[in-house]
Amino acid sequence: MVRRITCVLGLLILAVAPRVHAQVQVGDDLRMNMNGLITGGYAGDYGYDLPSSHGLTLGGSADLFGSYYNSNFLNFSATPFYNQSRADSTYQSLTNASGINTNVNLFSGSRFPGFVTYNYTYNSTGTIGLAGQPNFTTIGNGQGFGIGWSALLPDWPTFSVSYSQGDGTGNIYGTNEEASSSTKTLNLRSNYQLAGWNLYANFTRLSVDSKIPSFLSGEEVNQLYDSSGNTFGFGGSHTLPWQGSVSLNFTRSSYSGDFGSSVNENTGSTNYTTDIESAIVNFHPSQKLGIFANETYASNLDGYLYQNIANGGGGFPIIQQTSSGDSVTMDGGVSYLILPNLISQAQITYFDQTYLGRNYSGSYFSGTVGYAKRFLNTFALSATAIESTNKFANNSFGFILNLNAYRRFGNWIASGNVNYAQNVQTILVTYNTSYYIYNATLHRKFARGRQISLAYGGSHSGLTNYGTDNTSNSVSATVSMRWLDLTGNYIKSSGQSILTSSGIQPIAPTPGLPPEGIIVYNGESYGASVGLNPTPRLNITGTYSHATSNTLSQAVSSYNLTNIFYGQLQYRLRQVTVLGGFTKFTQQVTAVGLPPGTQNSFFIGVTRSFNFF
After folding, report:
1. Fewer Cβ within 10 Å of end Cβ, the chain: N or C?
2. d(Cα 47, Cα 604) in Å, to the nearest integer?
3. Which tens digits make up the pLDDT trace of 71-111?
C-alpha cells in the first residue's frame, strides 16, 4: 500500500512540477549541475515458469557533473539509474536494472594527472561470448573499480600506472547455468627520449577467475578457471640515414592457470612463458626506392600461438598443455615505384622452427605488383605471387589478389572489395592457408535526408588440404524516408572456436591445439527494425531478432535459440513524454534439458526531464 501511494505521488510530481534552471555553488570553489529523468507508470511481466506481476512503478536516471576550484584541478561526474529496462527506456536491460557510473579526474591540467572510476549494476542484462551470432543472455550483478596516475615531467621519463578490477555474476536465462568472472589488471608504462632514441617500457599483470557453463566446457558440472599472467616489454626506435629508421623490441609473457570444478578442484593446468624479440630496419634512398629487413625470434612458438588467441580479447585460452618450440624468422626486400600509381615489391623470408616435437626450416620468395589508380574509372588492383621451398614439404606456389571498386551511377554509389589468397605461408613453415574476404555496398541519397543502403559481405579461411575452416556471411539493408526508417540484417557463421575465460571465441585454424580444446560452432541470426516519426512529437519503434546456434564441445552438443521483440511508443508534451513499451524475450539451451525460458513485460506511463540544479 505504501509503495502504491509513493508511486501515485511520484506521478503527480511528474505532471505538475515546474522546470528549474540553476547551478549550485557551495562556497567559493565547488560548482555542480544535475539533470535527469523521472519515470512513473503501470508495468507488468509474465512468462513461462515466471510468476506474473503488475502494478505501479517509479524509476529514473540522473547526470551529476561538476568541478572543484577549477575543472583542470578536479572534475567529476556521476550517473545513477533506478528501475530502468528495455520496456520503458533506452536502457538495453531486459529487467529493471539499477546502478551507478562515476568518474573523478584529478589535476588533469598538470603534469601529475590522475583518475578514479567506479560502476555498479544490479539485476541487469549481460552476455557471455558465443562465437559468431548470437551471445547468450545473462541476468545478474556486476561492479568495477579503476584508479590511475601519471607523472609527466619535462626531460624525465614519463611514468603512468593504472589498476582496475571488476567482477560479475549472472545466470544464463532459461537455464540453471551460472557464469561468473573476476578480473584484476595492473598496467605500468614509461616513455623517454635519449640520444635520439624513443624508448619505452611496459608491464601488465592480469588475473582472471571464471566459472564456465558446463554445456560449453563439455563437462557435467560448471568449470572453474583461475589464471594469472605477466607481460613485460621494452624497446626503442631511432632514425637512420637515407630517411630510414630502426626499431628494436622485446616482450616476455608468462601465463599459468588451473582448471577445476565443484566436484574436482584441480583437473588440469596450463603454464607457458614466451620471449619475443624483433628488429625492423628500413631505408628510403630515394622517393621511388625502399629497402627493408626484419628479424623475429620467439622462444616458445606454441605459447606464442596461444598468446595471439589471448590477445584477441577472449581472455586466457583454456588449454591443458605445456607449450614448447621456438622460431626464428628473417626477411628482407626492396620496393620500387615504377610509375606514380604502379608499385612493385620483392621479398625473401627464411624460417627455422621447432614445434610439435620436430624441427623445420624453409624459405619463400614473394613478389608484389600493385596499381593504385582506378582503371575503367572503377577498379584498383594489387597482386602477390609467392614461391615456397622447404625440405619437409613439396614446393608450393601461392598468390594473393586484392581488388577494390568504387563507381558512381547517377545518384547511386557502388563500392566493394575482394581479397583472395591461395596457398599462402602461415606462421608455421609447414602449413599453408587459403582464404577469401569480400564485401559490397550500394548507396543512394534522396532529397530531404532520405536514403537507401544495401551491404553484403563474407569470409572463408582454412588450412590448405586440412579441412579446417571458418566461414561467415552477412547482408543488411537500410531505408530512410521522411518519417519512416527500416533496417534488416542476416548473419551466418561457422567454424572452430576455443574456450576462454569470457566464453568461446572463434580462432583461425591453428595446428597443434589439443582436440579437447576445440569447440565446433555454427550460428545464424536475422532481424529487422522499424521506426515511425509521423509528427515531430510522436516516435514509434519496433525491433525483432531471431538467432539459433549449435555448439559441439567434446561429447556435449547444444542447440541454442534466442528471440527478442521490442516495441516502444513516445509522445512528447513539453517536458513530459508519454511512454508505452512491450518486450517479449525467449532463450533456450537444449544441452541443459530445460524448456525455453520466456519473459514478457509491458509498461505505460510518463517521463519528465528535470534540471535539478
Report:
1. N
2. 19
3. 889 999 999 999 888 777 766 677 788 899 999 999 988 89
